[in-house]
């Protein structure tokens, strides 16, 4: 479930991703800079779909080594 807010002239969303299996803390993903609420809703829906399908990878969790050939 996503929450949407307007900051100034831009929209952002925050999505609950579940609990971290190691720490037990709640995990969230957020992104902003959308011109309209509809744009934010579409982006959030895509992430929610990936989370549901278990294919979501948070951008900062990917390291360069994952993309290089060994």
- Terminal CA distance reads 39 Å
How much beta, percentage-wise? 35-45%
CA radius of gyration is 14 Å
The helix count comes to: 1
What is the oligomeric state here?
A: single chain
Mean pLDDT level:
87
Percent of residues in helical segments?
10-25%
List keywords for this structure.
three-stranded antiparallel β-sheet; 70 residues; alpha+beta
Nutshell version of this structure?
With 70 residues, this protein is an alpha+beta fold.
Describe, in plain words, how this protein is organized in 3D.
This protein has 1 helix and 3 strands. The model has no long low-confidence stretch (mean pLDDT 87). It is 23% helix and 36% strand. Strands 1-2-3 form a 3-stranded antiparallel β-sheet, with helices on one face. It is an alpha+beta fold and 70 residues long.
List the helices and strands and how they pair.
Elements: E1 2-7, E2 10-19, E3 26-34, H1 37-52
Antiparallel strand pairs: 1-2, 2-3
């Amino acid at each position: 479930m996503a929450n949407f807010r307007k900051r100034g002239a831009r929209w952002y969303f925050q999505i609950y991703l579940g609990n971290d299996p190691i720490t037990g803390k709640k995990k969230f993903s957020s992104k902003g800079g959308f011109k309209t609420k509809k744009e934010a809703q579409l982006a959030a829906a895509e992430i929610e779909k990936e989370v549901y399908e278990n294919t979501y990878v948070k951008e900062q969790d990917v390291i360069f080594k994952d993309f290089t050939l060994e």
